[in-house]
User: Fold these one by one.
Assistant:
Number 1:
Amino acid sequence: MKRSPFDTATLDEIFKFDSDNNERLSSRESGRLEFKEAFHFGSADEYAKTMAAFANAAGGYLVYGVKDKPRILIGLKSDAFDNIDPAKMTQTLNSILAPEILWDPLVIKISGKRVGIIYIHEALTKPVLCLKTTKEVQEGAIYYRYHGRSEKIKYPELRQLLDNMRQKERELWMHTLQRMARIGIENVGLLNSTTGEVSGKEGSFLISEELLSKIQFIHSGTFVESGGQPTLRIIGEAVPINSQLVQPNKLVRTPLHGPDILYAFLRRESVLTPLDYVKQICFEQSHFYPIHFFINQTNITIEDVISELEQVACRASTKSKLILRLRTNENLTYGSLSASSPASKRRNHIISSLISKSLTDIECENNLGDFFHSLTYLTGDNADPEFILPLIQRVAMPKYFTLPALVAGSMRKAICHLDLIWYKRNNTKGSQTILSTKSN
């Protein structure tokens, strides 16, 4: 069974007191531990730096309620930590860092005093990069946790980080292929641990979110009645949950997928079932896909769309983030144009070329990352869909399946920005629906 990050042994190690002072901690800040006196949501960029450093290393703990020099346990003096909105915090972190990091909060009492802890998981995909420059972080920087401090990563650690990621990927492929060979390729089914979809030779079925979260904690086990390691055995009846996910004779998913959503937007297609395109995003690994373009093809309100999404049976993480996008005023603008860095200069040039419609395919292809970032600075007044959308189709979409995850994420966010400035209702700039005559 996967060990909890807040197990008793770990907490006892963090909150180890001096033998001669029951308020002073003997534990010190390290590669996996940092103390903060208080929590303030306004300091999110400062916390993001440390969280990115932990995620790029081996994970770690941010502890709030400990005064530094000397390390005295003072406890939380306000309820700011208790009132953390996970969705808002995640959205803030996602505006500063990519790819997304995973974190868990906890409030406990130590020696009668309330303490807040955030555990930052080691990133599955490294490195975690900073998306913009703030008071605490720099755009494009990779932060790493050294002994007791978070700094820009040095070459030896960066080299080791990249080598480890490649080695893990190779080992995972070899392990998976060996198991498939033992089972027989005709008997293999694939589980998407994000959506809960299991697909195989005879079709597909969907594992409920509640059960999926438990399955993901089981690493190995033996199927015996007693002894061995903990194992989960799934029993019961298969229950159809949605006519779009289940057909009478065979469990199948709709053939609609993320790239279909992108292509429909880029081609400005008037689709037959636009709400299905929005619902499909719930089953994707990312919630950054265009939505307002499809909503504009319906006659229902945003609140009606949210109600429909709440009824979709799927993993809640992507769905909740998608609903949050619909309920908030998004700002997907990347980085800064005022800095004198080469990246800022390239983006300024690309923006001017996009507005003047003079950007060439070669310029775009040679600077894809900057191209996507530049798109997020366009407005409904200066962005021409007749020029921009075919450009993305010609240059970016053929490479979409081979793009690094970070670049592919920037592409989707750029398309979401275009979706906002052109199609979001009640937007004073470019709120008209722009469709082509092509349909599904």
Number 2:
Amino acid sequence: MIVGALVIFIIANTLLADPHAGAAPLEPASDTGPCSLAQTVPATIVLVDDDFDLLLDDGRRVALAGIELPSANGENAKLHALAWQRLSNWLAGAQVYLAALAPAPDRWGRLPAQVIAAADSAADSPYVSVGAIILTEGLARFRPDPAAASCSKLYLDAEGAARNSSLGLWANDPIIQIGDESATSTATLLGKKGMAIVAGTVNSVGETKGSIYLNLGRRGVLDFAVMISQRNLARCA
């Protein structure tokens, strides 16, 4: 059985020049509920650094939880620059609303959070989720951080809109194309570093003392399988 050494999304059923073309309309942030304005506090962003950390005027560093932005190296370098420009132009110097999604900073000293900001400089501009908008425009992928669980539905829906419209990262980029359960696709995925999306049908389920296995193929060790640790099983409910 080949187990993906990657972060995997299972999708049940399943341009660079202008990332906003074809993007869904900006949806105002909800006042209540998961990933909403509830329990947020105002903050001012001074700058967005090259690693997409948001530096606040009080010295704190914030990371957009659940958001995987393009690498500055390799084939997505141009998109990295485009994503940085988008966030920098939008957020540098802006007052935003911040909701910490973890009780303490990560090992790099960044506070994982969701950020809600005015969509533009107009006086009546709606406040929107920064993470959701970046995903909708195809400038990032959803990363299933435990800290971002409350925003997962919003973020996955936003990413799906960009994927379906082939925007940004999803514009026929072979690095992040959706794989399947075949041996050829599995070998390709395991040769990559980072996250991958695999679409397929669960053919069988196996269980050991410590893990659950979702087998997407019929050929055992030749096909793709997802391993879920028993201790993490509740997060998948």
Number 3:
Amino acid sequence: MKFPSSKKQIVALVLAFTLPTLASVAFASGSHSGGHGKAKKSGGHDHSEGGHAKIDYAKAEQHEFGKASDPKKAAVTITIDMLDKLRFEPSSVQIKRGETVRFMVKNSGKLMHEMVLGTDASLLEHAAMMMKFPGMEHDEPHMAHVAPGKTLSMGWKFTNAGTFHFGCLVPGHYQGGMKGTIVVK
């Protein structure tokens, strides 16, 4: 695949991939069990903008890269800014093992962006799925789908040491370099 070289070509590519298709509408309506759901309102959060239903943090699913944690109890707050030039600022953070972090995920752009935590392999797999089904909507504690000009909070406890990643999986964004690294020591 040849990557576009101009801003107009990038915008056209992003728009081509983000327009919902008939298949993605069926996919996003609940026929998939990979952690995406139909947008809905619950507990004052709009799920289409990255808010999550009430999470029982005591029963949060353990992932290789940690588990959901109450952002109000975080020891550290890190602001991650998402930019239309398909970059995160900062793109690399260091965290202590066992530390609970509140990510303030800010979308300073005019395009929809998201921050998804994971391993390199899980993000690559998910990015490929998003290319096939661009209208998928997110509702997992390790994903923040943020509308332009908005900021959302996401709490995460990094229970294992290692190098983990985050990325914007809006079709074309991850492939365009919108990714970052989390080093847990």
Number 4:
Amino acid sequence: MNALHEVGFASAPTSTHTRDGLQLKDAYISNVVRCAPPENKPTTKEIAQCRSYLEAELHALTQLRVVVALGKIAFDAYWRVVAGQDMTPRPRPRFVHGFVFEADSVPALVTAYHPSQQNTNTGKLTQQMLSDVLRTAKAIAHRG
């Protein structure tokens, strides 16, 4: 999908290799899990083992304003990372596509279905749906 390019976060619609010139602008891409898990579904143990990497990345991004969680695994990881903050809602919201959470003490959260082949081939997630989520994230990031 070229949604990152369409919304202005990427300099090109696709990337073919690491030196093809693609650049991200005002965006950073990370993963909850650092390895390719069996059947492409990480275990609870793998998620826990990689948590410190995600926390370190988020801490290093000092101007981070918005997190786009692609899928429920990323959504759950966001809440685990910000769990100690006073603004974490109780009860925690359920994952739904297009959810937005904003609080002063933590980066905003915008959610989308994961752009897996299963979701894109079945139409559960369309390019328009993903572009809309990215536009929302961009609008939040560029406020004030």
